[in-house]
Amino acid sequence: MVGRGFLTDGALDLSGIAEILDRPRTWRVIGVTVGQSLTATAVSLLLGVPGAYVLYRCRFRGRRLLRGFITVPFVLPTVVVGVAFRALLVETGPLGSLGLDGTFAAVVAALVFFNYALVVRTVGSLWERLDPRAEEAARALGASPWRAFRTVTLPALAPAVVSAGAVVFLFCATSFGVVLTMGGMRYGTIETEVWIQTTQFLDLRAAAVLSVLQLVVVGSALLLAGRARRRYDRSLRLRTDRSAARPLRLRGPGLRPGPDLPAAAVTAATVLGLLVTPLAYLLVGSLHAPEGWGLGNYRRLATTGGSNTLTVTVWEAAANSLRAAVDATLLAVVVGTLVAVVVSRRPRSAGGRRALGVLDAVFMLPLGVSAVTVGFGFLITLDSPPLDLRGSPLIVPVAQAVVAVPIVVRTVLPVLRAVDPRLREAAAVLGAAPGRVLATVDGPFLARGLGLAVGFAFAVSLGEFGATAFLARPQAPTLPVVIFRLIGRPGAENYGMALAASVVLAVLTATVMMLAERLRGDRMGTW
């Protein structure tokens, strides 16, 4: 992509950058990308911090179930979320009178829907380990609850808040499916502009320059996240025990409002209004067929839609998605586990540590760029022998695996780093070969993290849309691609099929993640 954007006939040519940056459309797209991402990040933090307090600092019945539920939106395919919010906000929907369909606020709400769980779990994992005695001492010295939180607790939580905010900004800036299905051309971002320049205008140079520009934006966010994350990890290591959560107090003496009531109210309103309502209406809408209530939309999934909108049936597209997800998961888990095993080692030399840091950064790169950029890179790179994969069914699972590898590494790596290196040294001294050391010492710890890694990799691959939108063959589309085609065509039948197909995809993804969540151990870190 760098070569396509900055080289002409093998020589450096920066005229394309000046030409693209002179376009008012480019600056409008950059402004919308940064504006939407900053707004969604701020709202996610404002709503997520109270949720972290309620779910990690307080104890009440159903807390574990609620923690698992708020994780589901984070792993839902972006197309499903876009369809769910559109169903809620269109003129015929329950909130259609608000006129929010296709607006800036609607896109921001969908982005917050995705990233609320990330803030809650990142901040909550640190808050759960904070020593409460410092805040209690401030209260004993006369500080109000708000002042004690602002001057004592919030500074202690700052590393987690900054880390969560940076990663949320990253995900918002690289959100493709939500923006494309909800914002369209009016609120297009760098992400959607790359897709438009490639698929509609065939301007690969402009797409390459925009992809590199996006890499600069999200790379800055990743740098900030990395620095905050290191502070966050140090904070966690200072407190190995978890402070006991206290009961949720909604009432004070004399039936007065309790100290936890504001945070509980904000959390309840967010969960019910922002998380439950779109998903519930998506399910209800899928049961409302043109001929009346029932399973008509689901029966039509065995067809190609009204006026033969699709080239295959929805069930065939679902089978394509499952096959690609299985292949991508296998590739991602094998590669990601091998990388995690290498990066988890602790060389004595500074050069060795720097080399492992570079290796880690290389395999994290797909997390720092968008899936659209990955797909675009595959499209312009693997287009000539001996690596001409444009017509091969392998190109989709390979691209999905590239997107999923960083998640596998980040899931397995904390588990392997928890292994005391003295165990490996003792096994080696007793005569165990390196392979046996890996199998007998690292193996039990590795097995603990692989279940969650497989779940994340499969869920990400199953719902991946950005790279697949570039690479999926017309005769073998995946389920997210089919859903996008259905909502882009007129007709009640197509729209109803899109809702039903979105429910199917959401159920598949949620089931995978619920099973993976059950395999999550105490050593799994934040996730």
TrEMBL record:
PROSITE patterns hit by this protein: ABC_TM1 (PS50928)
Matching Gene3D superfamilies: MetI-like
Pfam family, one: BPD_transp_1
ABC transmembrane type-1 domain mapped to chain residues: 30-225, 318-516
Classification via InterPro entries: MetI-like, MetI-like_sf
Keywords tagged on the record: Cell inner membrane, Cell membrane, Membrane, Transmembrane, Transmembrane helix, Transport
Transmembrane segments: 34-56, 68-90, 102-120, 156-184, 204-225, 261-284, 324-343, 355-382, 394-416, 450-472, 495-516
Subcellular location: Cell inner membrane; Cell membrane
Membrane topology qualifier: Multi-pass membrane protein
Similarity section: Belongs to the binding-protein-dependent transport system permease family.
Protein name: Iron ABC transporter permease
